[in-house]
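Hi there,

I know you've been waiting on this one. I reran it after we fixed the sequence typo, so this is the corrected version. Both the input and the resulting structure follow.
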Amino acid sequence: MQTPIENLKLSIQPTREALLSHKVYSQIKDFDGIKDFAKYHVFAVWDFMSLLKSLQIGLTCVSLPWIPVGSANTRFLINEIVCGEESDLDEQGNRVSHFELYLTAMRQMGADTSKIDELLALLKTGRAINDCINAVDMPTEVKQFLQYTFEIAMHAPLHVKAAVFTFGREDLIPDMFTEILHKIYAEHPDKVSIFKYYIERHIEVDGGHHSELAIQMVSELCGNDKTKWEEATKAAVDSLKIRSLLWDAVCTNKFV
């Protein structure tokens, strides 16, 4: 008899496979293709942290005075993931968040960071997230992707957030992409070294250890509740479909 987590994985498999075979990967053939990919992918790297922090807020105590919240097991799982994502090591051994590392990689290769920079600048003024998203001139698909993430992060129950985080955001880099990246790195080692390090680190940490921790977290939060497992499964499928929108934006190349 299959476990609930095995049933969830089986249910999302067709949608996951469709995403991993998205035409975006076959369109990345050279250095310029990587740059075009990065200026869209950076939004997924950035909003990932808000989804993660929303889980930390819900699963641990982040206010004063401190009191125990939830189970120590889920606190451990989420805190370990946050530590790795928010303060990992760059290629020189310096502490850095994965998002900051990604921005550094983009700047090394001369990729366009103007849209993500504009979005962050607007957020620092204190405006609401959806107002900031709508104010930036970028493809509708990117806006829909971000709006979905923050709807989940700000309003969804914890087991749904965990499912989106675990199955809609982790371990979504196909072998085809890494093969292309290695080829481009061989041609432009001085421009792609940090990006290559980021991708390899992402596969090692997010697709490996963190993925296993996140799966444990979903199992803890859903427990034996059939309704929660159904909701988690639907959210996981929806999150994979919305990620496909972001890849559609890369393919249509709507940024100018």
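Quick highlight: The chain has twelve helices and two strands.

Best,
R. S.
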